[in-house]
Every structure is written in structure tokens, then in C-alpha cells.
TrEMBL record:
Residue span, Outer membrane protein beta-barrel domain: 18-205
Keywords: Signal
GO cellular component, one term: host outer membrane
Originating organism: Soonwooa buanensis
Signal peptide feature range: 1-20
Protein name: Outer membrane insertion C-terminal signal
A family per Pfam: OMP_b-brl_2
InterPro entries assigned: Beta-barrel_OMP_2, Enterovir_OMP, OMP/PagP_B-barrel
Length: 226
């Protein structure tokens, strides 16, 4: 039995080595939104969801098993989150409120790839993310109120959010999970153009925080295989 297992392991190792393995680096643009069942508001100002732009960068390893099938493992740093906008209106006075939810994450995607042609592959798989920090920022702007009134309101909001961020950082869910699916194209045998969509599966915060926030995002980038 030991001999059979040893022969099988050697055969598998040899088959993997016979196929192409590659390492690489990648980076690019990412646009994320917060997905939640809740209506978002701040101090009775209703907020509308917007996309948040940032970047990602990282490393990847790909192991081909044959001409069609491969597995890719990545380690990425990603700036994620979402933006919200609303307007405070009262007695002819108004001020636009901008909220920025920022999350720095280390993401580990694992993808099963299928090569449609030698240069083009489609893929899908799960990912695990570790949120290293989160920060919510807010600012009133584009207002017809006097500047000193707006400055005072922004200072008060900054103080309130400072305390709120401490609570949220203490209640970050670690890790969180998602599913990605996408497509990539290799040219000149080394350069890769990649586009994917990630669907958040688990919540950003623990059960202690009354929130159903999840992260969805689209990313597009370029990479180089060594």
C-alpha cells in the first residue's frame, strides 16, 4: 500500500511539474459599493449609495494541470468601501452631506480557471479577506449656510465619528468571505489583463454591531507573469 501511495504521489508531482507554473504581480483599479438591507442615514439625513474608487496590488501563483484547467491563488491588498450622499434641508437652508466608508483589506482569492483559448481564460472561486482597518469620514459641503456654521458642524461630526470608528474597529469580522468570477487575457506570453466582480457573502461586522453591511466590488487590472 505504501508503495502504491508513493508511486501515486510521485506521478501527481511529476504531472504538475510537467505543466506550466507561473508567479506574477498585478495591480489596478477597484470600484466598490456597500450592500445592505438597511436604509442608511446620519443624524436624520437620508443617504443614497454611491461607488467608491481605489486601487489594489498584489501577487499571484498559477498552476496549470493541462491545457484547459488551472488553479490560481492570489494575495492582494485592496482599498474597499462605499460612499453615501444626502442633503440636509431646513427652512430654506441646505447642506450636502458626503460620507466615506473605507476598509483596507488583505484578500486571498482562489480561482478555478478554464482556458477557452490559450490566451483567454474564465474563472470563479471563493476568497477570504482580512480587514486590517476601517474608517468612516463625513463632511458637510455645498451649502448656503455661513462657513463658520458648516465648520462647526463638521468638527462635531468628526468628533462623533472618531468615537464611532473605535466601536466599529473593535467589532470587525475576521475573516470575511466572498465569491469572485471574471476573465483574463494573456498577451506577449507575460502580460495579463484581468477583470472580475466580487460578491460579498459574509458581513463586515460581528453580530455585536446591528448592521448587515457586505462589500461588492468590480476590479480591473494588469499583471506580469515571471
Amino acid at each position: 500500500m505504501r508503495k502504491i501511495l508513493l508511486v501515486g504521489a510521485l506521478a501527481l508531482f511529476g504531472a504538475m511539474n510537467a505543466q506550466k507554473s507561473s508567479f506574477g504581480i498585478k495591480g489596478g483599479y477597484i470600484n466598490s459599493q456597500i450592500n445592505t438591507k438597511e436604509n442608511m442615514d446620519f443624524e436624520q439625513v437620508a443617504l443614497d449609495k454611491k461607488g467608491r474608487s481605489d486601487f489594489f496590488i498584489g501577487l499571484f501563483f498559477e498552476q496549470k494541470f493541462n491545457e484547459k484547467i488551472a488553479v490560481q491563488i492570489e494575495g492582494l491588498y485592496a482599498g474597499l468601501g462605499g460612499k453615501y450622499q444626502g442633503q440636509l434641508s431646513e427652512s430654506g437652508s441646505y447642506a450636502k452631506l458626503n460620507m466615506d466608508f473605507g476598509y483596507e483589506q488583505i484578500v486571498f482569492p482562489i480561482s478555478l480557471k478554464y482556458y477557452v483559448i490559450p490566451e483567454l481564460s474564465v474563472y470563479a472561486g471563493p476568497n477570504i479577506s482580512i480587514t486590517t482597518s476601517s474608517k468612516i469620514k463625513g463632511e458637510y459641503k455645498e451649502s448656503n449656510l455661513p462657513p463658520d456654521v458648516i465648520n462647526e458642524a463638521n468638527q462635531e461630526m468628526a468628533s462623533e465619528l472618531h468615537q464611532f470608528n473605535k466601536v466599529l474597529n473593535d467589532n470587525l469580522a475576521k475573516p470575511t468571505f466572498g465569491v469572485q468570477f471574471g476573465v483574463d487575457y494573456t498577451f506577449m506570453n507575460a502580460f495579463v489583463v484581468d477583470a472580475r466582480y466580487n460578491l460579498g457573502v459574509s458581513k463586515i461586522y460581528k453580530k455585536d454591531v446591528d448592521s448587515s453591511l457586505k462589500l461588492n466590488y468590480f476590479q480591473v487590472g494588469v499583471g506580469y507573469k515571471f
